[in-house]
Amino acid sequence: MTSTPVFHSEWIKIRTLRSQVAALAMIPVVTALFSALASSDTGGDDFDPLFSVFFGVTFGQIAAIALGTTAVSSEFQGGALRLTLAAVPHRGRWFAAKAAAVAVPVFAVGLVTGVVTLAVGKAVLGTKFDGLDWAEQVRGVVGCAVYLTLMALLAAGLTAVLRSGVATLSILVPFLLIVSFVIGDASSGVADLLPERAGQVAFHETWGGAMGPWTGLGVTALWAAAALAAGAWSVRRRDA
Whole-model pTM? Predict the structure, then answer.
């Protein structure tokens, strides 16, 4: 079986599962909501309008991670993976199709999320939004889509290794929302290389760290690639 029908079959699995469709739908909703709340607070000398606009990505990424996690973890329930591999014996091809079936819709929804979030932020910020030029706005929108896609792929790869959606979410969600901030406050140099902190440089108008916005996304891409490589190895080496 070639890659195209394998991808098509994996895409059908995603769009026919309510939990995964709901996760996709929640990405723009949660992101725009929290961005609106952040944009309403414009106090402080370190106010960054671009980061305020895209602040909600910190929470919207949880829905993207949930999609990447459930898309893979569903294969390890009730012997589903054995049936899948009976139809697609080439495990590497199957896992690549699974990753693509996760990445494509998340990227598309991420672009929509970026545009909606930008519009919401502009409406809330008012004149404070005028300082952002077109290049920064485009960077925010594209960076939003790329970042959400990479985090979904990171979750998919980790789930393939752990073979448990609960375990993956129990690790990633607390780490992203709590542990990363604690580590960041204690050691900013090392913490800047963490996947979410590196990727979110794209949402800052100015950044004092060593990485630029696209370099930061590159670091996040390396994390996602490492997770996918580990996941592919696990799928090939372990019993279904």
Answer: 0.92
